[in-house]
Amino acid sequence: MTHKVTIRRLATGVHGLDEVLGGGIPELSFNLIAGAPGSGKTTLAHQIMFSLASPECKTLFFTVVGEPPLKMLRYQQQFPFFDTDQVNKTIRYVNLADVLREGDFDQVLQRITEEVRNFDPRLVFVDSFRSVVQAGSANGAPSESLKHFIQQLGLEMTSWQATTFLIGEYTAPEADLTPIFTVADGIIWLSQLTHHDSIVRKIQVVKMRGQSQKMGLHTYRIGSQGIEVFPRMILDSGAVHVSGDKRLSLGVPVLDQMMGGGLPAAYSMLLVGPSGSGKTVLATEFLQAGVKLGEPGVIAAFEKSPNQLLSQKLKRLITQGHVGLIDTRALDLTIDEILHDLVTLIKKMDAKRVVIDSLSGFELALAPVFRENFRETLYRLVAVLTGMGVTVVMTAELEDRYTDLRFSAYGNAFLADAIVMQRYVELHGQFRKIISVVKVRASEHSKELRFYDFKDGEMRIDPTAVPYSNVLSGRVDPGLGLPVA
Questions:
Q1: Which of 83, 242, 328, 473 is the most exposed place for a label (fewest CB within 10 A)?
Q2: Cα(121)–Cα(110) distance, integer angstroms
Q3: At what angle do helices 129-138 and 105-119 cross, to 10 degrees?
Q4: CB-based contacts of 240: which residues, under 8 Å, 6+ apart?
Q5: 8-state DSSP, 256
Q6: CA nearest 48: which of 219, 177, 183, 226?
Q7: Tens digit of pLDDT for each residue in 371-410?
Q8: pTM
Q9: Do 167 and 41 contact (CB within 8 A), yes or no?
Q10: What's the gap between Cα 213 and its chain centre?
């Protein structure tokens, strides 16, 4: 071979799968779609098949179940990708149950080859291939016959210019148990992880010859539209360069001054405080300040419904298209799904500011397996978003225990580049709110405590510091015998 061969990649039509595969399915390849029962193997095969089938790309789908494929087709027809007009025209179903009864691999291969020769397909599917193997084993076929059958099947399909998919039920990679794992050019593995009372589905490209696939396990869901894959997002350290000189206004001039000139661009800020302290109001001020400068924003609501969450000011920003809203109160989500929705909306709006409201709701929305490793999950969220050059404000509710000073209920304060704390104090028989800047990484900032309140939906911070004698362990009520100014 003196000339470099270019392999065409076939788009699967499955959202997110081509990215995981490294660009699609290599044409003329010999592939295995494997996984446990109920993991969606047949649905994935049909979704790929209907996406690619056309008069120029005819398809043969071999079934090996002991009943006509009618039952399978009844269920697959419920998905919108299923096109009945293509059946018996560009797509043909063939049942191999009769020839399998003999358990002779040569007869099975002869029947498949005959159908391929007559129909001249460009795509061939065999569901379930493991049933073929089991039928041969039950009739005493030696393992060498199976290996020869698989090799010959691959050669025949390639010679007929067909891309082949074998579908099989396997609970774990059994590379040493069947030669198909060695012969296959590509292996797509579907798995279901059961954790407590939830199930998380994962897809893995075990191998795909001739191209660089996205390694690791990736989340997928089987919904009303079919299978949707959410590629695992990781930080590309070289994607964005932020000098650190640019500062963003939080929408409250006194707070910007306390921060040393505002929040540095592409930083993550943790805004913590007890219930009713005004975290969402301040987050809204942050988004509105960006809108005034022509910087769109995004808010992800994990805790409350939009009607509960949105102030009139925020509703107006969303209605006008300046701020995008993600309502993610659904339970058992994965970090990949959440990041997918966030990144998609950020790119669509070219957003520069993102609000996560709140971390407690974010944790509850996650599937249990991600809640138990919440530190890693939050790290991935922050790293991906700030790596895009987006500035992130996260709210977190903490119980105000007065004498117990904490910055995060999750021990994740170290992940934030900046921390702003809101607290209550008792003063002259009243609750008063105070705000302070705990840290701004690599930047000077105010160490003072300031009284603040809200008027007409806006935060007003006292420009002067709270006298030290007015605050002692958070309790300054003279009725309690503590000193006051």
A1: 473
A2: 16
A3: 150
A4: 266, 387, 388, 389
A5: H
A6: 226
A7: 777 888 888 899 999 999 999 999 998 765 545 555 555 5
A8: 0.81
A9: yes
A10: 17
Quick one: tokens of 428? 């002259």
Q: What is the distance between the alpha carbons of residues 207 and 183, in angstroms, rounded to a whole number? A: 11
Alpha-carbon distance of 325 to 297, in angstroms, equals 9
Cβ pair 38, 71 in contact under 8 A: no
Say if CB 197 and CB 217 are below 8 A apart.
no
Contacts of 216 (CB under 8 A, 6+ apart): 204, 232
Sign of CA dihedral 427, 428, 431, 433: negative
Contact 228, 220 (CB under 8 A): yes
The tokens of 338 are what? 């959440």
The whole-angstrom separation of Cα 188 and Cα 164 is: 13
Residue 341, token pair as written in the block: 């929705």
Q: How far is the CA of 257 from the CAs of 442, 455, 464, in angstroms? A: 16, 20, 12
N residues, the chain: 485
Instruction: Provide CB contacts within 8 A for 452, sequence distance 6+.
Output: 278, 422, 433, 434, 435, 459, 460, 461, 462
pLDDT tens digit sequence for 110-143: 888 899 999 999 999 988 776 666 655 555 555 6
Report residue 445 as tokens: 């900032």
